[in-house]
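Recap from last week: sequence in, structure out.
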Amino acid sequence: MEKHKIGCPISMTDPKIMACPFNAYDTIREEKEIYIDPVTRMYVITRYDDLKAIADDPHTFANNTGQLGSRAQSVNQKIADLYRDEGFLHVDTLVTNDPPSHTGYRSLVDKAFNALRIRSAEGTILAVTNALIEKFPNGPFDVTQAFSIPLPVRMIAEQLGIPPELGPDFKRWSDALLQQASPGLSEEEMLDITKVVIQMQKFFAKMIRETREQPSGTLLSDLANLEMDGKRLSEGELVSILMQLLVAGNETTTNTISAAVLRLAQDPELQDRLRKNPDQIRNFYEEVLRLDAALQGLFRRATKDTQVGETPIPEGAILNMRWGAGNRDPKRYENRDEVNLERKAITQHLAFGHGIHFCIGNQLARAELRIGLSRLLEETTSIRLVDGEDNVVRPPHFIAYGISKLMIEITRA
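Predicted C-alpha cells:
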C-alpha cells in the first residue's frame, strides 16, 4: 500500500484510512510528534509513551470529552429532547467519567464483575464454542456470522441474564453505540442512532426493575442491587453502565476473534505450530490484540493549557488517543508488524487501554479468545481463506477496527 505523505492532508475521517489506518499512523508518528487532524481538529496521539503518559494523568487529560454518549445529546435540542422524553439523558459513569466520581462507579462494577464470575463462566464459554463449531458447514462460510459474533454476544447475554435469542438486538445496539463516536454524522443519522439507543435503554430499564423485584444472581442483578454510598444506583446510572458493558463485552471481542482467524487462515505454518504447542495460543491472541486492536482509539480533553513532549496543547483541546498506533510504535516494538510468540512483556499492549479506564471486560475477552481459538484449532487440521474479492470485508469506522465478513473453509480433525 502506498505510504501517505503529510503534504497530502491525513484525516482519521477518510474512509480508506478508517478501514486500514496503519500507514497513516506511520507517517504521522515519523513526521509529527502530535498531529492536528484537519477535519476534526483533534490532536492525534500515536506514540506509545505519549499514550501511556496521557492515560496516567486524568486530571490534566479528562475522559469527559463529549465525544461518546454525551456527544449525541449536544448536537441539537431535538436529540436531547428525544432522550429526555423517551429514554435517559446521558450519565457519566465509566468511560466518560473522571475521578473522584469515576472511582465509585468503577469499584461497584469491579465488585460485581470479578475474577470468580469470569472463572465460573468458562464452562459456558466452552459449551457455546463447541455448539457453534459443530454447526460449521463443510463448504465455504462466513466465520464472523458463524462464530465471531455469536460467541461474545451469547456470553455477555449470559452474564447479564438476558435471553440469547436477543443476540441480533445486542449486535445492533452495540453498533449504534460505537457509531455515535463518528464525526460528521448528519442530524438524520444522529436521530436514527438515538432511536436505536433508546430501544436499548428501555430494555435495560425494564430488566433493572424486574431484577430489583426478584434478584437473580446475574451481573445485571448484582449491579442493580449493590449500593454505592449507602444507596442503589438510579436507573439512568445503571443504564449507562450496562450500555458500556454491552459494547465492551461483545463488539471488541468479536473483532479480535475475526482478526485471529484471518491471521491463522493466512499462515498454515502458524496454525501447525499452535496445534503442536497449544500453550502458545495465549501469546498468539495477545499479539493479535496488539496488532489488530479492535478499538483503535478513544478520546481525552485537556483541562488546562499543557503540552505533550514539545507540542503545546490548549485547554479544551480534544485528543484522539490512537491505541492501535501505539501498539505498532517501532520505538516500543521490534518487528512491530509481525506476530512474535516469544515477544517480551507480551501483554503490555494498549488494546485494552491504560490507566484507570483499563477495559473492565478484559478477563472475559481473554477467556473467550483462549477457549474459542483453542477449540477451533483442536477441531480442525486446516483453516483456509476462500478466494474472492470480497472474502475479507473491513467496514470503515472512526474508532473501531474490525471485519464484517470473513469467508473461510475448514478441514475437520
